[in-house]
Sequence to fold (473 residues):
Amino acid sequence: MATRKLTGKDLRKLGFPEGRAIGEAIKAMEEHFKGKSILHKKAMLKKVVGNPGLYLKHEAWGPVAMALIIKKDHNETLALREKRIPYNIYGAEGIEQGAINQMEIAMKLPVTKYGALMPDAHHGYGLPIGGVLATENAVIPYGVGVDIGCRMCMTMYDIPPAFVHQNTDELKDMLMENTKFGQAVFKRPKNHEVLDRDLFNEINVLKSLKDKAWQQIGSSGGGNHFVEFGITEVHSEINEFNLPVGKYLSVLSHSGSRGLGANIARHYTKLAMDMTKLPGEAKHLAWLDLDTEAGQEYWQAMNLAGDYASACHHQIHDRLAAALGEQPLALIENHHNFAWKEQDADGKEIIVHRKGATPAGEGVLGIIPGSMTSPGFIVKGKGNVESINSASHGAGRVLSRTRAKQTLSKKEVKKHIKKAGVTLIGSGLDEAPQVYKNIHEVMAQQTDLVDVIGTFEPKIVRMCGDERFGEVD
Fold:
């Protein structure tokens, strides 16, 4: 008992502020005072936290003292770099200035190593949607985004394309019975092993979120989230699915981690902003050092939310497979709004934030959707270092939700959807096809980033809709 490890909780009781100093102190004790008693360690820690200036040149306590002084003296508006780090922009001519301005600020953060802006980029909070940011040992909750682990998931079936035209009403009923959106949830949610994770009992913020996660599992969010039947065409005889070239009935879904992810994002964004004071224009880019207890907590919670989002998709596809009476031939899944531990060209670890960007490492499969009336693309990453192994996550918006509702005509939108041969359930004017960029132009701007190996044509689309503005259908 005398030589047990001190925790962040112990250090906070000794007067240590939340932040890097706690991580540095735990590291110092592990490296220099491993065999010492608890009383000895606490006595030394009290001296250091009481007068850190005396220990700046101390071999063991120097880094701890520096972290304490920075926290105490600055409390602390950290300065941005005077000059931004260079970064690549793909499809710059189609990207609004607001998104570029946000990326310029992100590239001045002291923790930033690399960055890139994808061709679907548009203005967001903190990091722009379509922004990719690599940092050193730091994770930015708003660099990940509110809908943590949002993803695409596709299943393909041994059912001919004609089936979708011959059974439109039946497929609409399947979507109505087996999918839920927004505030709607299943009366009897299916259990999933992700809900049994110990983290729900170990991290305070997660304890209050487990019931909500259980209620919402298997459902989809609002906004641009969807579940749809469509037709996938496999282009090449050599493919990861071992399927013949041809067309297949498919299900494509887009959604994230629901209330679980949103509440994790809110909690840790506030904590990051309290711990890392930045100038006003950069405040939403506040980070958590991964050496801190808070940083490690967020990292675990983020990964849990990502696994939960995946579980939601798998339940959606399981329900529809049962309704079809078929087992899928293949499943493809990729996610965005996440942070990954990866290596740069020099082999050093970096934390890669992809906020609305698809991983596109060499050989990595992904799905890049267009709109409800334009195709999506099954892609294989080329591993382009200049894009930080990333590609766009969709077409990207050209109209904000408010602007779409103010300017678009319900009659014209319905006419456009009908002409495209798409059956729509739900969706407000803010998700009309006209609010999105031309997906073919977006794909043309990232030929250096991905190869196209298949396409997906939406045919029956279900979305949440917006009662305030009236649904399109």
Summary: The chain is about 35% helix and 20% strand. The CA atoms of residues 423 and 445 lie 30 Å apart. The first helix runs from residue 8 to 13. The longest strand covers residues 450-463.
